[in-house]
Amino acid sequence: MKSQVARWGNSLAFRIPKQIAIQLDLKPSTTLVCSVEAGALVVRPVREVKEYSLEELLTGPTEVEDEVDWGKPEGKEAW
């Protein structure tokens, strides 16, 4: 697919064809990283992954709910 470079203020821009946007699940707020590799423009979406510290992972819930009585067993549940 071809796309044409156009002026956007003091910068240059190009449109991403719809089929490519669908394949890459690009949205208007998607962050892209642009680089030059072997003389070619490479544009990659940034897939941000939240990294948790060990302390965050080991921290349990601060509020404990009371046990809920769902009534007497129905059917063949094993208690």
TrEMBL record:
Residues 3-48 form the SpoVT-AbrB domain. Gene3D superfamilies: 2.10.260.10. GO terms for molecular function: DNA binding; transferase activity. InterPro entries: Antitox_PemI-like, SpoVT-AbrB_dom, SpoVT-AbrB_sf. It comes from the Bacteria. Keywords: DNA-binding, Transferase. PANTHER family: ANTITOXIN CHPS-RELATED. This is AbrB/MazE/SpoVT family DNA-binding domain-containing protein. It comes from Gloeobacter morelensis MG652769.
